[in-house]
Amino acid sequence: MLILGITTSTMQVGSAIGGHEGVLASIHTSKAKRHAEALVPSIDFLRKQARIDLDEVSCVAVDVGPGLFTGLRVGIATAKAMAHALRVPMIGVSSLDLAAFPVRFSPRLIVVALDARRGEVFTASYRQVPGGIQRLADGVVCSPDDLAGDLTATGEDVLLVGDGALRYRETFQELGSVEIGDQGLAYPSAASLVQLAHARALREEWVQPSELEPFYLRKPDAEVNWTTREGREPA
Predict the structure, then answer these.
(1) Does domain 96-185 have CATH number 3.30.420.40?
(2) With contact defined as beta carbons under 8 Å apart, do 145 and 104 qualify?
(3) Contact by Cβ (8 Å): 93, 193
(4) What is the Cα–Cα distance from 34 to 36, expressed in whole angstroms?
(5) Domain positions in the chain
(6) Into which CATH architecture does domain 2-95+188-227 fall?
(7) Which residue, 80, 112, 148, 227, is most buried by CB atoms nearer than 10 A?
(8) How confident is the model at residue 30 (pLDDT cuts 50, 70, 90)?
(9) What gap in Å lies between CA 194 and CA 152, rounded to an integer?
(10) What percent of the chain stands above pLDDT 70?
(11) 33: pLDDT confidence band, cut at 50, 70 and 90?
């Protein structure tokens, strides 16, 4: 079984291919919101490096968010199109889970903070369990100050990862119990996506393309701006 993984929920575009043998190849690139231009060429480069034809792929996995609206739309639309063309099922994985997975062996409380723009972060907490990690609650969107308060209230040693942790480093670095992950842990990993999707594929936890939807956590900027305009009183 070969799985193609696609992640576009942040500034970074990633793709990976793997299966029973592990991750065979992965690529990540960042081109300042040019997700649509970067994604398809990166997938083509990836399959050539892995010496795999797309018709060998038996599942398409995609990062469903939360994350940047444009990136999510591009990634999910591309993944759906490929799954339809290849006639294979899909698996959707949270961007927060993907960011937490590389540090799954940490005994500390693992917290992911992804940059949500507008002075906010998408965040969720995890604990190490046999065989991986477990998310403690659904992801939420909040301000860095609110997250810092929550981290202090836990009274635990925390490993904080994600580009939101780096962007608002000054808010978190004064918390003595919090260690901030480095740049290598800033974004959801396509390699992690393939690994997590493979475990779900073995359990046959498939999703049909028509059923897969992005997980936004809040309204798009354009919708918020339009609502605000409609709510204004005439000048």
Answers:
(1) yes
(2) no
(3) yes
(4) 6
(5) 2-95+188-227, 96-185
(6) 2-Layer Sandwich (3.30)
(7) 112
(8) confident
(9) 34
(10) 91
(11) low
